[in-house]
Structure formats: structure tokens, C-alpha cells
Amino acid sequence: MVAIYPINLDGVEVRRSGKCLLGPLDLTLAPEGFTIVMGPNGAGKSTLLKTLHGMERVRGGTRTWAVPETEALKRQAFVFQTPVVMRRTVLDNVAYPLTLRGLSKREAQAAAQGWLSVVGLSKAAAQRASDLSGGERQKMALARALITEPEVLLLDEPCANLDGQATREIESLLLDAHKNGMRIVMATHDHGQARRLASEVLFLHKGKLLEQTPAPQFFETPQTPEAKAFIAGDIVA
Ligand SMILES: Nc1ncnc2c1ncn2[C@@H]1O[C@H](COP(=O)(O)OP(=O)(O)OP(=O)(O)O)[C@@H](O)[C@H]1O
Questions:
Q1: Which residues line ligand 1 (CB under 6 A)?
Q2: Gap from CA of 57 to ligand 1 centroid (Å)
Q3: Nearest CA to ligand 1 atom 2
Q4: Torsion, CA 74, CA 58, CA 51, CA 90, rounded to 10
Q5: Ligand 1 centroid to 157 CA: how many Å?
Q6: CA–CA separation, 217 vs 223, rounded Å?
Q7: CA of 176 to the centre of ligand 1 (A)
Q8: How far is it, in rounded angstroms, from Cα 85 to Cα 228?
């Protein structure tokens, strides 16, 4: 099977009500890596992730994968900052993507049990998902994304509402997934988290991609004054 990457954005622009939210932007995401998307509030991080997942209409330029878009999108998964929680059990929330793909309920639930064990939620399987804590909900959302074995996992600030321990647990799951070959692209505000996870950093400012830089280089010797100010914790003009 042909891999879906590289993913290429070529002159891509996203507009709403006449306002340019993103771009024009050129970007190639190589097959390997843990890409962290950084930038000040409103820089366009969520918009970029949604663009990469086909959730934003591209007004200019092209967005391509190594396979046709409809196929590529089925082989990606997205985790939101606030997890989507369906009014079902935890087990059925995690099994859901597989039932959508035509697996029997029994097969889907068996796979879901496996992923709940990976994320440490086995005991909550029969619980209503709405009763989970914030950290548990995010682990459930991660299991629901991982169950489809995506080639690319996109995450938008998945730990923004979590405490230190839950954050570290999610990070450890992501590092394991990455070690097992998953391509990850994730937005975060947390500089410590970015340093712990990133192999490369995309730095956005005012909808423009100012840097795509290997992580150590980005943090030690950022190329643009905006990134320098951002890393120093200054206001980015
Ligand atoms: N639905 C929308 N309609 C109009 N403008 C929008 C919409 N969604 C986002 N924007 C604008 O697009 C720009 C980029 O927003 P986006 O959410 O992608 O930034 P971000 O870097 O993820 O921000 P944050 O760090 O605050 O989450 C911002 O100026 C925002 O106000």
C-alpha cells in the first residue's frame, strides 16, 4: 500500500469573510517526524491542522497527499482540544470509528478493549463517557483516534486543559505511537512539552509559516526575530 505522505501544501490560503486566516503557505510534511506547531494566539495553528485534515476549504493553492484526498483523509485522525464525547459507554466511544468502517460490533469492541488497556482506561469501559474526568476523556479520545491506526495523527492542543500528570501520560502515549511509526503533527502552547516531543517545529505568526526547523535548532537558534521573541516569552510583534 502506498503511504499517504509526503503531504504538500503549495500556496495554500484559507479565508473567512474576506479575511485571510492562513497563508499563502508552502509546506511539505516528510514521512517521518513529530512535528510541533507553535505560535502566538491567533497565529493560525488550529486552522493549519484543520487544513491538513480537510476540514478547511482551501481558497487558493493546492493541498496534496501521495494518494487521492478522500483516501488520505480516511488514513488520518484528529484529536481536538476538547474531546468529542458521544452519549455512549467509554467502550462504544472508542469502538465507534471501527463500526463506521463496517466492522461488527463484537470485533470493534474487542479492538476497543485493547486500546482502552493501552491508555489505562480498561476499568472505565462500561462507564458513561460523559462521567470521565478531563484527562480520562482525552485518553479516550486518543484511543478512539489510535484504533484506526492512522498514518498521520493530528492533535490540536490535546493537553491544554490537563494537569501535569495527565499531560505526561498523554505525552508518553504519543511518544510510543511515534516510536511505532506514526507521523504526528500537534499544536501546543506549552514550550516544555514542545521541547520534550518535537523533532521539528513549525512556527506560525499571523497566518504565515515563518519557520520549519529541526527542534533543537529552533529552540537554540531561531531564525526569525518573531520566533526569538516567542521563545523568550516576549510579546511577538
Ligand atoms: N470561524 C472563524 N471565523 C473568522 N475568523 C476565525 C474563525 N476561526 C478562527 N478565526 C481567526 O483565524 C485566525 C487564526 O485562528 P486559529 O484558531 O487558527 O489560531 P491559533 O493559532 O490556533 O490560536 P490559539 O492559540 O488562540 O488557539 C485568528 O485571527 C482567528 O481569530
A1: 16, 21, 39, 41-47
A2: 14
A3: 16
A4: -50
A5: 13
A6: 9
A7: 30
A8: 38
Ligand 1: nearest atom to the Cα of 47: 18
Q: Is the pLDDT of residue 43 over 90?
A: yes
Mean per-residue pLDDT of the chain: 96
Using one digit for the tens of pLDDT, what is the confidence trace for 145-157?
999 999 999 999 9
- Per-residue pLDDT for 236 more than 90? no
Average pLDDT over residues 29-51: 97
Provide the pLDDT for residue 95.
Answer: 98
- What residue ranges do the domains of the chain occupy? 7-85+152-232
State the cell numbers at 66.
501521495
Residue 48 predicted with pLDDT over 90: yes
Q: What is the DSSP string of 154-212?
A: EEESTTTT--HHHHHHHHHHHHHHHHTT-EEEEE-S-HHHHHHH-SEEEEEETTEEEEE
Q: What is the pLDDT of residue 160?
A: 93
Angle among Cα 23, 28, 34 to the nearest 5 degrees reads 105
| Domain 7-85+152-232 part of CATH 3.40.50.300 | yes
